[in-house]
Amino acid sequence: MRIFSPDDFDTQPWKNGGGVTHEIAREDQGGALLWRLSIAEVKTDGPFSFFPGLARVLTVIEGAGLYLETPEGRIEALPLTPVAFSGDTAVTSRMIDGPVRDFNVIYDPAWLSVHVDRPPAGRSDYPLAQGQFHACLALAAGVSVEGVTLPVGGVAHFETGHVDCPAGFAALMVRFSPR
Fold first, then answer.
1. Which end of the chain is more exposed for a tag (fewer CB within 10 A), N or C?
2. Is-contact 1 145, C-beta < 8 A?
3. For the chain, which domains are there?
């Protein structure tokens, strides 16, 4: 298991000046991105970056949400509700009611499938499965993985174990599965 504290994140401003991205962790394969976890601070409306050939799951973790305008129609990115879309899709974001922070999982769908959800209060077990691994983002105090308490905003990356969460919306879980 690896723990990533918010102090360890690699923070970079966006090219368009509309916010910053805090890269939590990533894995490359053959010189190409396999997966990346990040938190974005969205401060203005504007276009999203393209990630050709990749897929993404975005979950608003602070703020009222975003309207994501795409050629296929509007996606409503509401608090704590994961939305999935292609990194090839042209997306223009509009804040619903002020700035937001969102958690992003960007991955290569040729190699992985990804599922993001909120674990229930109490203990949840994540058993060992061939090639599968997990990430837990602590949104509140008291979240632990295998008995290790995560800092608020911190992430645990692990293959198998149990996650303990207090009541409420305390964490987000990501399950990566091989294709």
1. C
2. yes
3. 10-107 (2.60.120.10), 112-178 (2.60.120.1030)
Structure tokens at 144: 């632990």
Two structure tokens written together for 58: 């975005």
Helix (H) or strand (E) holding 51: none
Beta strands in the chain (DSSP E): 2-4, 10-13, 19-29, 32-42, 46-47, 55-62, 66-70, 73-77, 83-86, 92-95, 100-107, 112-117, 122-126, 133-138, 144-145, 148-149, 155-158, 161-165, 171-178
Sheet order of strands, 92-95 included: 46-47, 92-95, 66-70, 73-77
The predicted-structure confidence for 50-85, as pLDDT tens digits, reads as follows 899 999 999 999 999 999 999 999 999 999 999 999
CA–CA dist 150, 135 (Å, integer): 12
CA-nearest of 158, 139, 159 to 150 is 139
Is pLDDT of 18 > 90? no
Can you give the pLDDT at residue 43? 92
Rg, Å, the chain Cα set: 16
What single letter denotes the amino acid at residue 150?
L
Look-up: residue for tokens 């690699």? Answer: 10
**Cα distance between the two ends of the chain:** 22
How many residues are present in the chain?
Answer: 179
Q: Return the pLDDT at 167.
A: 85
